[in-house]
Amino acid sequence: MLLGAHMSIAGGVYNAVLDGKKATCDTIQIFTKSSNQWRAKPLTDEEVERFFAEQKNTGVTVSCAHDSYLINLGSPDEELYKKSFEAFTVELERCDILKVPNLVMHPGSHVGSGEEVGLKRIANAFNMLFEKLPDNKTTVCLETTAGQGSNLGYKFEQLAEIIEMVEDKERIGICLDTCHIFAAGYPIQKEEEYKATMKEFDRILGLVRLRVIHFNDSKKGLGSKVDRHTHIGQGELGLEPFRHIMNDKRLQKIPKILETPKGDELLEDIENLKVLRSLVKK
Questions:
Q1: So what's the pLDDT on residue 71?
Q2: Of 154, 183, 241, 282, which has the highest C-beta tally within 10 A?
Q3: pLDDT, tens digit, for every residue of 204-230?
């Protein structure tokens, strides 16, 4: 079972691995650069070597990175689209240097240009990116979204549409976020609801594409379209959806990552991971 949380890279990417160990993680998610800045400070050889060394020392793996929240590959604004494309290129290159297997990203927002236009722009960006970086080994993982504002990716069909338009489909995966799919209107609380939603996911996207699961409870209700994370079992989802996933043998080897609120001591992560581990049927 690969369980973990998103960890800060403040002071160097290797610090995320050390914090992951402190928080009892098996695996972690990181940003490869500051998430709220366009510019990225170059990674030094020393920093990269230590990043690999600390993974070996601690046994904590880095299963995914998350891209910057500034990036919007669905933007109709040419300047922002170009900036986003260049920034995402850098993110993929950094993941490759750090040997991070998956880069999770919110597909983007159409900002009034319409869903179909937005989906096409995103797919076109991937086609250009994959042509530009033919040897990059990182899988781009489209994240399921809550559907807030003009955000795309709140329906499984929208993600499938993007994949359909991408030529090199082998380089695309999916990240399923529990809070987001619930807020988007997919029920997962009762066992039969969970099974039906996962059946739909498998039919439309294929479980074979699922690379990462984000474990977040939701502050808002089913179909609210509002993306607000809270601690496991303390929100509208409750414990049951997490119990279903933790005991779903098909998902056993997929990294499950917390993105819940936390303080400097990481006590919240430790508690949330303890709760999740207690849900596994012996």
A1: 97
A2: 183
A3: 999 999 999 999 999 999 999 999 999
Q: Where are the strands (E) in 98-224, listed by range?
A: 102-105, 108-109, 139-143, 151-152, 172-177, 210-215, 217-218
In the chain, how many H helices and how many E strands? Answer: 9, 12
3-state SS assignment for residue 64: strand
CA angle 258, 85, 113 (to 5 degrees): 90
Region 12-41: what's the mean pLDDT? 95
Domain count, the chain: 1
Residue type, 218: S
Tokens matching residue 37: 């800045």
| The length of the chain, given as a count of residues | 282
Residue type, 165: M
How many other C-beta atoms can be found within 10 angstroms of the C-beta atom of residue 189?
16
* Residue 94: C-alpha distances to residues 6, 44, 138, 222 (Å): 17, 11, 10, 36
| Residue 119 belongs to domain with CATH number | 3.20.20.150
At 171, give phi and psi (nearest 5°).
-95, 10
Q: Is the pLDDT of residue 266 over 90?
A: yes
* Predicted TM-score (pTM) of this structure: 0.97
**What one-character DSSP code corresponds to residue 209?**
G
Q: Which residues pair with 103 in a beta bridge?
A: 65, 140
Residue bearing tokens 């012996």: 282
Range(s) of the domain holding residue 178: 3-278
Higher pLDDT among residues 27 and 37, named by residue = 27
Give the whole-angstrom CA distance, residue 93 versus residue 63.
Answer: 16
Residue with tokens 């494309």: 85
Confidence of residue 1 (pLDDT cuts 50, 70, 90): confident
